[in-house]
């Protein structure tokens, strides 16, 4: 027999999102520089632009004021920012929950900063050494750099036809290197990803197989999967992304630009977000 609780109407997520005066989380691309040249990177051509420290400080102030809960610091490769230490000083003074998104190559150089400034770190590893190094590079350097990281570590894996059959090996690597969780993404047909889409992208059959496999493997470690077949996309509603020059986008993959946080009123920017599509912008 249904309980009183189960009979209550489930809140409409869309209506709740419209009540928000800010996203729950914001990604900040502090630089578009990168030391890697990954075959499927959504940034087709890496630039040479760092977000100015004074601009970053202003962005953080705005996000705190409007009620953003968490931020993720990304790139490019964020550790390539010329004044990464100054960026960290600002983060440390803020009250925002902060994640670092890195390819892991320079983690050893910045271990102390990472441990004292960030709440968690996402490190990109795309499979066993031979597979990872074909898609990215630096497997052994990354693994060595992980040893002294004391904060929560999440392995970020971009799934493709090249590595989707190595999920058990990926879990083994995560366990051997004390990762707390694994976050699985799929290749997006954006930037360089569009150029390798036909050869590396997963099809519907692949995704079904992977989802079944994940269900079994979740018993070994926490796994989250950014399922591209999901009907909902939170970009522009619960999530936003900011480029080094202050340009605001729904997410890193989206071609849409909302405006510029350094030059426009927050309320104006936020109102523009209300009409974004609810399906993944990368596949539009």
The biggest beta sheet is recorded as: 10 strands, mixed
Contiguous low-pLDDT stretches (5 residues minimum) are 1-13
CATH class of the largest domain: Alpha Beta
Broad shape:
globular
Distance between the termini: 43 Å
Going across the biggest sheet, name each strand in turn: 7-6-5-4-3-2-1-8-9-10
Q: What structural class is derived from the secondary structure elements?
A: alpha/beta
The number of strands is 10
Tally of discrete structural domains:
2
In DSSP terms (H or I, runs of 4 or more residues), the helix count works out at: 12
**Rounded radius of gyration (Å):** 19 Å
Give me the CATH architecture of the largest domain, please. Answer: Alpha-Beta Barrel
| Overall mean pLDDT | 89
Strand percentage, roughly? Answer: 15-25%
The CATH superfamily of the largest domain is: Aldolase class I
What pattern of helices and strands is seen along the backbone?
HHEHEHEHEHHEHEHHHEEEEH
Helix content: 25-40%
- Find the CATH topology of the largest domain: TIM Barrel
Explain what the structure shows.
- The chain is α/β, with parallel strands linked by helices.
- The chain has 2 domains: 22-38 and 46-124 and 230-284, Aldolase class I (TIM Barrel, Alpha-Beta Barrel); 143-229, no CATH class.
- Helices cover 34% and strands 17% of the residues.
- The protein is built from 12 helices and 10 strands.
- The protein has a 10-stranded mixed sheet with strand order 7-6-5-4-3-2-1-8-9-10, with helices on one face.
- Helix 3 runs parallel beside helix 4.
- The protein starts with a helix and ends in an 11-residue tail after the last helix.
- The model is unreliable at 1-13 (pLDDT under 50).
């Amino acid at each position: 027999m249904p309980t009183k609780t189960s009979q209550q109407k489930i809140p409409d997520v869309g209506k709740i999102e419209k009540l928000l005066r800010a996203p729950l989380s914001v990604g900040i691309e502090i630089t578009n520089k990168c030391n890697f040249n990954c075959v499927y990177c959504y940034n087709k051509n890496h630039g040479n632009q760092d977000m100015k420290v004074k601009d970053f400080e202003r962005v953080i102030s705005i996000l705190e004021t409007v009620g953003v809960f968490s931020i993720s610091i990304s790139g490019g490769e964020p550790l390539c920012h010329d004044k990464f230490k100054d960026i960290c000083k600002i983060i440390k003074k803020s009250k925002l929950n902060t994640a670092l998104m890195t390819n892991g190559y320079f983690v050893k150089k910045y271990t102390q900063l990472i441990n004292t400034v960030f709440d968690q770190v996402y490190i990109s590893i795309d499979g066993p050494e031979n597979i990872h190094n074909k898609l990215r590079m630096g497997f052994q350097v990354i693994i060595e750099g992980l040893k002294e990281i004391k904060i929560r570590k999440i392995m970020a894996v971009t799934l493709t036809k090249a590595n989707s059959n190595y999920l058990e090996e990926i879990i083994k690597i995560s366990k051997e290197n004390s990762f707390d969780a694994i976050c699985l993404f799929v290749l997006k047909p954006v930037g360089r990803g569009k150029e390798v889409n036909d050869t590396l992208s997963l099809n519907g059959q692949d995704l079904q197989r992977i989802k079944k496999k994940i269900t079994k493997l979740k018993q070994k470690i926490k796994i989250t999967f950014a399922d591209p077949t999901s009907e909902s996309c939170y970009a522009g509603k619960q999530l936003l992304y900011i480029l080094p020059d202050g340009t605001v986008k729904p997410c890193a993959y989206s071609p849409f630009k909302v405006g510029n946080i350094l030059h426009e009123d927050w309320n104006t920017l936020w109102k523009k977000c209300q009409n974004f599509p609810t399906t993944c912008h990368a596949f539009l």
